[in-house]
Amino acid sequence: DGSITLKIPHTSLCDDVRWNDIALKYGDRSLLIEIPKATSSAIAKREFVLKIDRLFGAIVPDKCTHIVTDECILLMLVKLNDAMRWPNLEAPYVKALPANTSTEMTRASHSSIDLRALRTEMIAKREGKLISTMNWLNKKPFKDDKSELEAMAADVALMRVASQFECGDYVEALTTITRGLRHSNISPVDQLELLNYRAYANIQLGSLKDAISDYSEMFEIKPNADTLFKRATAHEQREDYEAALLDYEAALKFEMANANVRQAIRRARELVTQNNRMKAVDSKRREKDDGERSVPRPCMRQFEIRGKAGACF
């Protein structure tokens, strides 16, 4: 248990010992413990027990001695390592093994141990404990392959997609939408609604190019300003401001009195102008840098005087 217990016969009771006056004297190789008595009157012999924690592996029990006098008890403990100081002397703490582990080790010690079989058993137990926390390994990745997915009725697909959107499970929603679009008897209204759901799911997952493709397919089925506005917003998120401006202007032709479309057109024009200005500045800077690198000039950095011969090379 990480401790050593010394049983020393003494002529006094435990109550007659002055516990507050215990003196400790440290030596190079020993520890002297002095426990004075309260009285020196003769009392019947009793067994006095002293317990010192965490010193079982740090001292040599065979070399420990004790002296019983009329005034005090002298204990001499001898340490195992001379380099360790007494205040820092401590045996390493050994953690107790579980009951089933110790039983298996005891059983294995009495018989011949097959290390290969033991290793296989340990790996099996470890994987059995971890398999409940790694259910994602058994899940199949999402594949937008219509040939591998069964068809689903459009109304059932719309109900499932709505519940999956509420939970934020957009990957499973894409699978449900693909199954709903694969149905042969799907109506144009349900097809538009499913495509709208799929475009929104692709935007949430960061697939802006797929969302633009979905909006284009919706526009082919039913041209309207709302679809063009959504596709322009996706173009704007991809920083394709020129394509966004074209879609906003096309949406304005469907709804001339739409204030949101007019405001989006002004914003897109500003972004296009700013982007063109930045491209022009970068182009001029690039041409300037190429000219400076191609033609050596005295004002360049490599021609500065540094006090050394050949500093420009």
UniProtKB/TrEMBL annotation:
TPR repeats: 225-258
Biological processes, Gene Ontology terms: protein targeting to mitochondrion
Gene3D superfamilies: 2.60.40.790, Tetratricopeptide repeat domain (1.25.40.10)
Record region (Disordered): 276-297
CDD domains in alphabetical order: p23_like
Residue stretches spanning the membrane: none
Protein name as it appears in the record: CS domain-containing protein
An example molecular function term from Gene Ontology annotations: heat shock protein binding
Compositional bias (Basic and acidic residues): 279-295
Matches recorded under InterPro entries: CiliaryAsmbly_MitoImport, CS_dom, HSP20-like_chaperone, TPR-like_helical_dom_sf, TPR_rpt
Transmembrane helix as UniProt keyword: no
GO cellular-component term (any): mitochondrion
Signal peptide: none
Keywords: Cytoplasm, Repeat, TPR repeat
Subcellular location: Cytoplasm
Domain CS as annotated: residue spans: 1-90
